[in-house]
User: Which sequence fits this backbone?
Protein backbone atom coordinates (compact mmCIF):
# COMPACT_ATOMS: atom_id res chain seq x y z
CA UNK A 1 0.00 0.00 0.00
CA UNK A 2 1.37 3.43 -0.93
CA UNK A 3 1.99 6.13 1.64
CA UNK A 4 -0.88 8.15 0.19
CA UNK A 5 -3.26 5.20 0.52
CA UNK A 6 -2.09 4.58 4.10
CA UNK A 7 -2.73 8.21 5.04
CA UNK A 8 -6.18 8.11 3.45
CA UNK A 9 -7.04 4.85 5.21
CA UNK A 10 -5.98 6.32 8.56
CA UNK A 11 -8.11 9.42 8.03
CA UNK A 12 -11.04 7.28 6.97
CA UNK A 13 -10.76 4.94 9.94
CA UNK A 14 -9.97 7.49 12.64
CA UNK A 15 -12.54 10.05 11.53
CA UNK A 16 -15.21 7.45 10.73
CA UNK A 17 -15.68 8.71 7.19
CA UNK A 18 -17.19 5.46 5.89
CA UNK A 19 -14.72 5.12 2.97
CA UNK A 20 -15.20 8.72 1.78
CA UNK A 21 -11.54 9.54 2.48
CA UNK A 22 -10.43 6.71 0.20
CA UNK A 23 -11.51 8.83 -2.77
CA UNK A 24 -9.42 11.83 -1.72
CA UNK A 25 -6.41 12.87 -3.80
CA UNK A 26 -3.17 14.62 -2.91
CA UNK A 27 -4.90 17.93 -3.74
CA UNK A 28 -7.79 17.40 -1.31
CA UNK A 29 -7.78 20.20 1.24
CA UNK A 30 -7.73 19.11 4.86
CA UNK A 31 -7.31 22.33 6.79
CA UNK A 32 -10.24 24.74 7.03
CA UNK A 33 -12.36 22.94 4.44
CA UNK A 34 -12.59 19.56 6.11
CA UNK A 35 -15.06 19.91 8.99
CA UNK A 36 -14.07 16.73 10.79
CA UNK A 37 -10.47 17.89 11.18
CA UNK A 38 -11.00 19.91 14.35
CA UNK A 39 -8.42 20.03 17.15
CA UNK A 40 -9.48 16.70 18.67
CA UNK A 41 -9.50 14.96 15.29
CA UNK A 42 -6.08 16.48 14.59
CA UNK A 43 -4.68 14.80 17.73
CA UNK A 44 -6.36 11.49 16.86
CA UNK A 45 -5.00 11.49 13.30
CA UNK A 46 -1.48 12.52 14.35
CA UNK A 47 -1.40 9.80 17.02
CA UNK A 48 -2.59 7.19 14.52
CA UNK A 49 0.02 8.32 11.98
CA UNK A 50 2.77 8.13 14.61
CA UNK A 51 1.69 4.63 15.63
CA UNK A 52 1.37 3.42 12.04
CA UNK A 53 4.76 4.71 10.92
CA UNK A 54 6.71 4.31 14.16
CA UNK A 55 7.89 7.85 14.86
CA UNK A 56 6.83 10.86 16.87
CA UNK A 57 6.21 14.30 15.48
CA UNK A 58 7.43 17.00 17.82
CA UNK A 59 5.35 20.11 18.42
CA UNK A 60 7.62 22.22 16.23
CA UNK A 61 7.01 19.79 13.34
CA UNK A 62 3.23 20.10 13.64
CA UNK A 63 2.89 23.28 11.63
CA UNK A 64 -0.68 23.76 10.37
CA UNK A 65 0.72 24.03 6.84
CA UNK A 66 1.45 20.29 6.96
CA UNK A 67 -2.29 19.71 7.08
CA UNK A 68 -3.14 22.05 4.22
CA UNK A 69 -3.79 19.17 1.81
CA UNK A 70 -3.45 15.41 1.77
CA UNK A 71 -0.34 15.92 -0.38
CA UNK A 72 1.40 18.25 2.08
CA UNK A 73 0.80 15.72 4.83
CA UNK A 74 2.11 12.85 2.70
CA UNK A 75 5.21 14.92 1.79
CA UNK A 76 5.91 15.59 5.46
CA UNK A 77 5.59 11.92 6.32
CA UNK A 78 7.70 10.91 3.34
CA UNK A 79 10.48 13.21 4.58
CA UNK A 80 10.27 11.58 8.02
CA UNK A 81 10.47 8.09 6.57
Assistant:
Amino acid sequence: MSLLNNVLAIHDRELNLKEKALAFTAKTKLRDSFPKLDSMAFVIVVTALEEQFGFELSEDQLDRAIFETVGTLVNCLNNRL
